[in-house]
Amino acid sequence: MDTMRERFASVTSRLLDEDPRLAVVLADIGVDGFAGAARRHPERVVNVGIREQLLIGVGGGLALTGLRPIMHTFASFLVERPFEQVKLDFGHQGVGGVLVSAGGSYDWPSGGFTHMAPGDIGLLDTLDGWTVHVPGHPDEAETLLRHAAAAGDDKVYVRLSVQVNAAPRPVDGVGFRTVREGRGGVVIAVGPMLDNVLAATEGLDVTVLYATTVRPFDAAGLRAATGAADAADVVIVEPYLAGTSTRFANEALEDRPHRVLGLGVGRQELRRFGQLDEHLAAHGLDPRGLRERIAGFVPARTGQ
What we know:
By secondary structure, the protein is α/β, with parallel strands linked by helices. Helices cover 35% and strands 21% of the residues. Strand 1, helix 2 (35-40) and strand 2 form a beta-alpha-beta unit.
């Protein structure tokens, strides 16, 4: 199976052939994947070198000319380092584009903290009008990339990851999808966290929702999943900073008694490289860690 980044390069290269409005801007990351597209469309595949602020600035400039730019590099260099340019060159100027990241929270542990971005979604939450997709499988990434490329002049962030679920799920770029139904609470699994959440909640009487589009937050979907219960218990499992989406769940359920538990990446930096699975376990995002915390939070009854 190809990775999400490999699928991104192949799909976007085909989209460049199909849509003369699209352009790709790179910062020395992922250049090889676009070598063929660059030969065919040298005016619409631009590598600015290791200049991430310029990456966003060039993308904003292309958007002002009527093109739809797709900008790509590691999340820490795409959202965090050039955040002022994201805020001004897209938000302030009122233009749209697509940010496609790699690296996630700790996809490449040996790269160190400079190549980790667990706070990227939280940072974008300080801005207005961004759609955020977090696919959990390369097939889902392709669908969501196509949505993003065709999304008019919207501002879209697509967060790619090395961690993937074993099988893709149908995604539509809008709301949450019900994967399992129960009565003892609702667990929202974001993108690549789904398989671990399903393993962790096996035998628990909970509803599991799958979220690959997290902004806008599907408040209606969450309300429907909690049903007419007098009170609601909600757990959100995200592959980035713990608690990033709890505010949105609280707002969705503000008219009824509820509790929300946000699980995700901790704020304390892990200073050992390790491997991806070791980072998941250290943050309690492996099946065992999730089972302990979810079972300790939702009503203690098992499915029948």
